[in-house]
Amino acid sequence: WGPQMVDIAIKAVKKIILKRGEYTEVDIKRYIRIEKIPGGDLNDCIVLDGVMFNKDVTHSKMRRRIVNPRVLLLDCPLEYKKGESQTNVEIMNEEDFNSLLRQEEEYIENMCASIVAFKPDIVITEKGVSDLAQHYFLKAGITAFRRIRKTDNNRIARATGATVVNRPDEIQESDIGTGCGLFEVRKIGDEYFSFLEECTDAKACTILLRGGSKDVLNEIERNLQDAMQVVRNVVFDPRMLPGGGATEMAISVAILKSMDEVEGISKWSYAAIGNALEVIPRTLAQNCGASVIRLLTDLRTKHTLPNFGGSTWGVNGTTGEIADMKNLSIWEPYCVKTQTLKTAIESACMILRIDDVVSGTRKKKAEGQNA
């Protein structure tokens, strides 16, 4: 299932790329959700042209399939607002109690009327929806969802083109999302899932993973997260370098070659860095059970060919032989390689500084004892 997961990762990351002038935004954590549902086959794993969430409609008679729905997203409760402070009400007769109930009903009715005026097909809120509000929505033919997570609401907003509104009286026509082509509630296993699919320009998506067990799905999710991060790096910087230790060996050979031009004690630092970079191909050779000394000698010979003729040769981790990474299509992002080298240099500098401090304190102690 490796190639299939790679295709899913590329497709998902491509969907959420958003360009704002010279700035490119690829927010995997916020706008790609991986939904794991045990059961089914690995071939059923797909990237939706939209989003899905684990919710059913609030009322059983509400519509469960709508073509080209108008979606309204809210961040407020559709129920009577309870007082923040404790209030005592003295009721003298039965009519006073009825007037209090009527006030609550009128408040909810006015709230629902302001929503129904914009003729949405789906209303999704992050807070609660009262029974009376459900009744008014059902009469108007509106499907309602309640207690949606904030992250899911943001994804729905990106997928459908809607805007999350904080108060019903602030709704505008531009806040209604019309980018969704199909809404449907489906039962998968024992749970109901709501799908907003066939979105015209969805900048958020859901990856639906199916598999035999939760352990299998968790393993697939970890690999998929790594694959998406690699695709994200390539989107920001499309430059690639050969893998299999070819890049490290090429840098090592170049540094050792330039060592001859340096005089004095400085040349030994070149030698140390050149030998240190060979640790990557050496480790690859050890992991695949090859003859390390012979393989590294052959690889070093390849990299000393004129005009950088063997600079793309590295270690084939499957066969334990040297091979041209260009033919095997093994590439690594340029930004990852550069960051690895920067981190290694900074770590070495930090260790040397600590060593200087420790050796300095020991020297002072020794001088104090001698005195």
TrEMBL record:
One of its GO terms (cellular component) is chaperonin-containing T-complex. Keywords: ATP-binding, Chaperone, Cytoplasm, Nucleotide-binding. InterPro entries: Chap_CCT_gamma, Chaperone_TCP-1, Cpn60/GroEL/TCP-1, GroEL-like_apical_dom_sf, GROEL-like_equatorial_sf, TCP-1-like_intermed_sf. GO terms for molecular function: ATP binding; ATP hydrolysis activity; ATP-dependent protein folding chaperone; unfolded protein binding. It holds the Pfam family Cpn60_TCP1. It is found in: Cytoplasm. Gene3D superfamilies: GroEL (3.50.7.10), GroEL-like equatorial domain (1.10.560.10). Belongs to the TCP-1 chaperonin family. This is T-complex protein 1 subunit gamma. It comes from Chromulina nebulosa. The lineage of its organism: Eukaryota, Sar, Stramenopiles, Ochrophyta, Chrysophyceae.
